[in-house]
């Protein structure tokens, strides 16, 4: 293990930010492996320039982003990449930069390191810079020779801040005096269960319900009102599965719910906000019909879209008559229809700052 793990973030740029970035492409740093490069390749992490945002530039996979961005994790594990430093050296700290990236930043990160003598490094096939792809079985097999799972931990799993101007740089000082040649950056998804009723959405009790409640022929409660919320998806796509979790809501979960979807351009969304989402009925397409909910339970439901193959950009979640839901997840496949709607957030940048031994 390293001499010591990180000692915590600091409030302002530490001294190590003035040192040379050993991972930069400018000094020969390169990506040896990345689990996924669907939206933007990991090579962007090592650019010498600050992150930039080009409002109207797209790739066939979506909005062009000046950073590393993987697809949403829907399989076990987490995403990670291996960096070969351009210069071996003593690492004084890390700067994980999430500039402009406020909605889709990696919630957590950890960093490991190893040192290989130049003549003892395992042969890793040269990686091609690509977008829209994941690592192949052959690439996983090749990188396994480095046994990076067992590398020293320099930064334990730690939450990252969103990329607001005042907080986009996540600094991690390192006190280890060892020399390092390779870095493994791990990013972890933010999928988790609710911690309590406060960690969810709960509406007030509706006062317009009839004094005596009745069901219709399908067992659905007959009430005049409902509560709803509209979401813009992180990426346009086809929804195939819907998860609705009423965990902790035991006596105050909704009686039923439904989910609808539609596709809107940026201008249409702005118009709808001004109109308080008084959207014409024909715009909404059903993703989930009216469905009874149980208290304190995870509901995993198939969407109607596998047959319809409808791409959506927005979803409307309606609960009847009121109550609380801890989590709503809409799972599916992204689509290049995102060209209709620009995104606003580039991905994060990563740098390694180091001091040098006298004999380096």
Q: Would you spell out the secondary-structure blueprint of this structure?
A:
Elements: E1 20-21, E2 30-34, E3 58-59, E4 62-63, E5 79-97, E6 108-114, H1 137-143, E7 152-159, E8 169-173, E9 179-188, E10 201-202, E11 214-215, E12 221-222, E13 227-245, E14 256-262, H2 266-274, E15 285-292, E16 298-302, H3 305-308, E17 311-320, E18 324-325, E19 327-334, E20 349-355
Antiparallel strand pairs: 1-20, 2-5, 3-4, 5-8, 5-9, 5-20, 6-7, 6-9, 10-18, 11-12, 13-16, 13-17, 13-19, 14-15, 14-17
Write structural notes for this entry:
This protein is mainly β and 360 residues long. It has 2 domains: 15-192 and 343-355, Jelly Rolls, CATH 2.60.120.260; 201-325, Sandwich (Jelly Rolls). Helix content is 6%, strand content 37%. It is built from 3 helices and 20 strands. The strands form 5 sheets. Strands 1, 2, 5, 6, 7, 8, 9 and 20 form an 8-stranded antiparallel β-sheet that branches. β11 (214-215) and β12 (221-222) form a beta hairpin. The protein is elongated. The protein starts with 19 loop residues before the first strand and ends in a 5-residue tail after the last strand.
Comma- or semicolon-separated keywords:
360 residues; mainly beta; Jelly Rolls; 2 domains; eight-stranded antiparallel beta sheet; six-stranded antiparallel beta sheet; 3 helices; disordered N terminus
Assign a percent range to the helix content. Answer: under 10%
Q: What is the global morphology?
A: elongated
Number of helical segments with 4 or more residues: 3
- Residue stretches low in confidence (pLDDT < 50, at least 5 long) are 1-10, 337-346, 355-360
Order of helices and strands: EEEEEEHEEEEEEEEHEEHEEEE
Count of spatially separate domains: 2
Terminal Cα span:
22 Å
